[in-house]
Amino acid sequence: MARVAAVDIGTNSTRLLVADVDAGRIADLEHQTRITRLGEGVDTRRRLLPVPIARVRNVLSDFRRTIEDLGAERTLAIATSAIRDAENGEAFLGEIEWSYGFATRLLSGHDEALLMFRGVTAERDLDAGTVIIDIGGGSTELVAAEPDGVRWHESLDIGSVRLTERFLHGDPPTREELDACAGAVQALLAERVPEEIRDATKSAIGVAGTITSIAGLALGLEEYDRERVHGFVLTAEALSEQLDRLAAVPLAERRELRPLDPDRAPVIVAGAVIAREALAFLGVDALTVSERDILDGAVLAAAELPEQEEGAAPPGAYTCC
After folding, report:
1. How far apart are CA 253 and CA 3, in angstroms?
2. pTM assigned to the model
């Protein structure tokens, strides 16, 4: 058995999982999510900006103390869309590795989809015709799964932060803005998802903060409850109802909705649009919500890392900002 930690440095959130891993099974010890919006402005500027970087650094300092207190043997930090797209992203990762002692891995869209699949299937078998939908801040991953593995996967540059910055400027967003956002999602799905995958889809699994947050709202929870959300069947009708509810109110009111994280409120509408359009495109009327996702895949990968060694600073350390 290995006690390890994984950190997911995403476009919208930075997350931590400390767990015991034994023969491929994951026993959670600590799970934390902080909204850090690292990808703020990256879609237009192609750079990580100083204030979002500072937010992530502060959270990583807290995470490192938790990791040390729980006695994790090694930590893997994974980086996705925002760092992938930013010209100073790799330098920032070098700084993280040197400053915090984490092993780091910059994931391509291909890597992201496969690691997410590994996390989702850590403790469950999938039926043929299942598509996993992972809506992030900067990208959305789709994986067509079969009982024996991955049949097809794709990473699309549509995410809750990216589409909010591109389309949803009103408070609340206007009908024209919402329609433009939905149209962009529809067009990219039609362009990138093969017809045979669409026709073969029989069911869907949804992961990550947009979908789990909408599930919590649909359940009417006052406080977020991972156990109640995991395995919840979110119908397309309930998803549309929550999207209409979220899009109808200004941001200040959206922040007060429970159990939605107030810091997720600025981008949840765009994320819900992606989820609604993905279900409609795939022709399924519901998805099953999974709390197991790419972070769990990263924990399994962390357990396979060699023992950490002292070494020189990675190239680019302390040069990103």
Report:
1. 41
2. 0.88
